[in-house]
Specification:
By secondary structure, the chain is α+β, with helices and mostly antiparallel strands. It has 10 helices and 12 strands. 32% of the residues lie in helices and 22% in strands. A 7-stranded antiparallel β-sheet has the order 3-2-4-7-8-12-11, with no helix packed on it. Helix 1 crosses helix 10. The longest helix is centred in the last third of the chain and has 24 residues.
Length: 299
C-alpha cells in the first residue's frame, strides 16, 4: 500500500470515529419512589400530567426551562413529627457526563444531622443552620441579633418550613464544560407567595424584602459525592402553575439554576485529520475513479 493510500485510510478512520462520537445516545432518567408530580406545559401554564415524558421534561435549559418534576410532592401535608420520623426520599437519576447523577428530596437527617446526632436547635453544626443563615443573609437580616435569628428559625421550623423546602422541582439537567447545570422551578417573587391569603409563612413575611427570591433545596449525588444545592437568585420563566386542580397562579414563575462545578471530566480532544490526509483522501478517490474509467475503456 502506498504512503498516499495509508494517509487516506487514516483520515477516513478519524472521520468515522468523529461520527460515532457525535451520535452517542443520551441517558434516560428514571424515578425512585412514587411521591412525585410531573408538570407539563400548555401555553404559558404548567399543569400536572402524570403521563408526561420525564426525559422530555428534563430536556430544557435556562432560557426555556419548560415543565418540571416535583420530588416529595406530599411535603406540605405532613406534620413536623411525621417528617422527622420519615426517611423516605424521592429521586430522579440518570447518567450525566459518564457518571450517575441522583437528585433527591431531603429528609430530616439531611437537615438536622450534626455528625454525632440530630439537633433541631438554631446554631447547631448542620445544614439547617447553614442554610437558614444564608436565607437570612439574602433577606438582608444577616446583622440581626442571635436572639432575633433564633426566633425566626424557631418560627420557620414550627410552620414546617424545612420540610416545605425539601421538595425541589427539577426542570432541566444539562452539562456545560465540566459543570452540571440543574434548573429548580420556584417563585420569582417568594415574598408574594408568602403573603398570599392563608399562607403558613405569613409570620416570616415581615423579615423579607419585596421581590425576595429563594429556591428549594436539592440533594445532588454525583459519582459518589453528595452536595446540597440552592440559590437566592432567579430568572423569569414566563410560566405559572395556572391550569388544573391545585393551581395557584404563582408557582414555577422563577428559574433557579444551580450547578455541580468541575465534576465532569471532558472527553479527550477528538483528533482532526491533517490537511495533507484529507488531500490524500480526495486524491485516492480521484485515483480510483480514474482507474475504473481506464478499466471500462479496456473492456
Amino acid at each position: 500500500m502506498t504512503t498516499l493510500m495509508k494517509k487516506a485510510l487514516m483520515g477516513a478512520t478519524v472521520v468515522a470515529g468523529m461520527s460515532a462520537i457525535a451520535s452517542a445516545p443520551a441517558s434516560a432518567f428514571t424515578m425512585t419512589g412514587n411521591d412525585y408530580l410531573l408538570y407539563d406545559v400548555t401555553g404559558n401554564s404548567t399543569y400536572v400530567n402524570q403521563s408526561a415524558n420525564l426525559n422530555n421534561i428534563l430536556a430544557g435549559n435556562s432560557a426555556n426551562p419548560g415543565g418540571n418534576v416535583e420530588l416529595f410532592a406530599s411535603s406540605e401535608t405532613l406534620t413536623n413529627a411525621q417528617y422527622l420520623a420519615s426517611n423516605a426520599r424521592t429521586s430522579v437519576s440518570g447518567l450525566v457526563g459518564g457518571s450517575m447523577l441522583t437528585l433527591s428530596s431531603l429528609t430530616a437527617a439531611d437537615w438536622f444531622s450534626t455528625g454525632s446526632g440530630m439537633s433541631m436547635n438554631y446554631g447547631a453544626n448542620n445544614l439547617a443552620t447553614t442554610w437558614f443563615n444564608a436565607f437570612l443573609n439574602a433577606a438582608g437580616q444577616g446583622s440581626a441579633s442571635n436572639l432575633a435569628k433564633t426566633l425566626a428559625y424557631n418560627t420557620f421550623f414550627g410552620i414546617g418550613g424545612f420540610q416545605r423546602s425539601s421538595d425541589p422541582n427539577i426542570s432541566y439537567i444539562n452539562t456545560s464544560g465540566s459543570d452540571i447545570n440543574i434548573g429548580l422551578a420556584g417563585h420569582f417573587d417568594l415574598k408574594a407567595f408568602y403573603t398570599r391569603p392563608g399562607s403558613a409563612f405569613a409570620p416570616l413575611a415581615a423579615l423579607l424584602p419585596n421581590g425576595f427570591q429563594a429556591s428549594e433545596v436539592v440533594r445532588a449525588t454525583y459519582n459518589g459525592t453528595t452536595q446540597y444545592l440552592y440559590s437566592f437568585s432567579a430568572t423569569q420563566t414566563g410560566l405559572t402553575n395556572s391550569v388544573g386542580a391545585g393551581a395557584d397562579n404563582l408557582s414555577h414563575s422563577g428559574n433557579y439554576q444551580v450547578s455541580l462545578r468541575g465534576v465532569v471530566t471532558p472527553p479527550p480532544p477528538t483528533a482532526v485529520p491533517e490537511p495533507s490526509a484529507m488531500l490524500a483522501l480526495f486524491g485516492l478517490g480521484g485515483f480510483l475513479i480514474s482507474k475504473k474509467r481506464q478499466q471500462s475503456k479496456t473492456a
